[in-house]
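Quick check before the chapter quiz. The format below is the same one you will see on the exam, so make sure you can read both the input and the output lines.
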Amino acid sequence: MDPSQWGAPYEITVLALFAIVMLRANGTYWIGRGLAAGARRTRLASAMESPRYGQVVERLNTWGPVAVTLSFLTIGVQTLVNLAAGATRMPLWRYLPAATLGCVMWAFLYATAGFVGFDALARLWARSPILAVSLGAVAIGGIVWFVVAQVRRHTRPDAAP
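Here is the expected output.
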């Protein structure tokens, strides 16, 4: 399913990829909400109604939109993040803008360098697995550094004027 082989204009390819990932992300979010609703009818209900669970859900719903958006730059993590966003009942007014931004990034990434990048990474792995892993570690480290810096910046008390 390499979009560069579709033969469609670039704009159509981006729009098609956006629609695909938006449907998949929102479907996963709603599956998470359904699973949580079902869990509330089991023995897990008492744990899900505890104050600690409420605190965790509140924190996830506050910082979760950043995770939702950034998850679209990863492979395999976005499904788990969207499922967790649904399971914690992240408000739609937080989830939808974050998911939309992530889907736009994902669509442009895959319509341009996504599959070419995967091919390049596979070729690099064939020549030097150590270099491929090192490159991945640097990329992940950069993302972690960025997220930590944003969290620190937003949780720091403002200085008095």
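If your answer matched, good. The mean pLDDT is 83.
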